[in-house]
Amino acid sequence: MSASIPQILDGKALAQKIQLELKEKVATLESKIGRPPGLAVLMVGDNPASAVYVRNKERACQKVGIASLGKHFPGDATQAELAETIKELNQDDRVDGILVQLPLPEHLDSISLLHCIHPDKDADGLHQVNLGKLVRSESGLRSCTPAGVMRLLQEYHIPISGKKAVVIGRSILVGKPVALMLLEQNATVTMAHSRTENLGAVCREADILVAAVGKPEMITRDLVKPGAVVIDVGINRVEGKEGKSKLVGDVAFEEVAEIASYITPVPGGIGPMTVAMLLSNTVESYRQFNTPDVD
Ligand SMILES: NC(=O)C1=CN([C@@H]2O[C@H](COP(=O)(O)OP(=O)(O)OC[C@H]3O[C@@H](n4cnc5c(N)ncnc54)[C@H](OP(=O)(O)O)[C@@H]3O)[C@@H](O)[C@H]2O)C=CC1
Ligand SMILES: Nc1nc(=O)c2c([nH]1)NC[C@@H]1CN(c3ccc(C(=O)N[C@@H](CCC(=O)O)C(=O)O)cc3)C=[N+]21
Ligand SMILES: [Mg+2]
Question: Which range of residues forms the domain containing residue 150?
Answer without folding.
Answer: 143-270
